[in-house]
Amino acid sequence: MILFLTNNDITKPLIKWLKSKEKVLVITKKITKNDIKKLKPELIISYNYKYIISKDLLQLLPNKFINLHISYLPYNRGAHPNIWSHIENTLSGVTIHLIDHGIDTGDILLQRRVVISDDETLNSSYKKLHFHIQMLFKKNWFKIKRGKIKPRKQRGKGTIHYKKDLKKVEHLLTEGFYTKIYKLKGKL
Question: Is residue 143 part of a domain?
Answer without folding.
Answer: yes
